[in-house]
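Hello Y.,

Per our agreement to keep a running log of every chain we model this quarter, I'm adding this entry. I've kept the format consistent with earlier entries: sequence first, then predicted structure.
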Amino acid sequence: MQIILRGPAAGYEAEHTARLFFPGAEKSENLPQEGDFVLAQSHQCTDLALLRLNGKLQWQSALRPQGEDAEYALCRLLYGMLCRATGITPPWGMMTGVRPVRIIHDMRAAGAGEDEIRARFLDHFGCAPEKTSPLGGGTMLGYAPILDREFTMKLKKLAEENNIPLQHEPMGGRTGTDADELATAGRGIKMALLSIPLRSMHTVAETIDPEDAANTARLMALAAKEGF
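Predicted structure for the entry above:
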């Protein structure tokens, strides 16, 4: 896969939007005669996204809305086409290289409320709803290939039976927690993952809802009592 960028708005963001779908792609100046490629091209008033994947050519073009940021418009067009063509929807949407916590801090500093911040992630960046799970919405129950499905479903049922609110967190192949190492330790350990929703992780402003912490502890205690 090769990435070709043309036009004043086709820069870092367009390149890394393409890399959300094709992380190993090489950047190129010219369209290849053979093989797969993705082209992002901006003109004065229009944008074009062109993809050749497994020999099949697909494209999409659009007139840029008046006043819309040219770089964002091109990336949005490219992102939508690649989602449809590949069947992949990245959980963090169009976010490329910017830490979510930085965006949150900047928006709060500008006076934005929590609903406005959440809408920014959902509507502007296209993040999956589980990435913007609200504080006070309940314990996060993780879903990932490395986690044991039976164990996870038992926790889900236990929470439902005891009126413990849950939020669901689909993950990739790994969870980014100690569960990844424990699941493969020795002969393997069956793992499930509960998390407490929070904001501003790893900062002095890290914040949780005490009710979420209490419900998580309650679910863990019930699981231990059941002998999971």
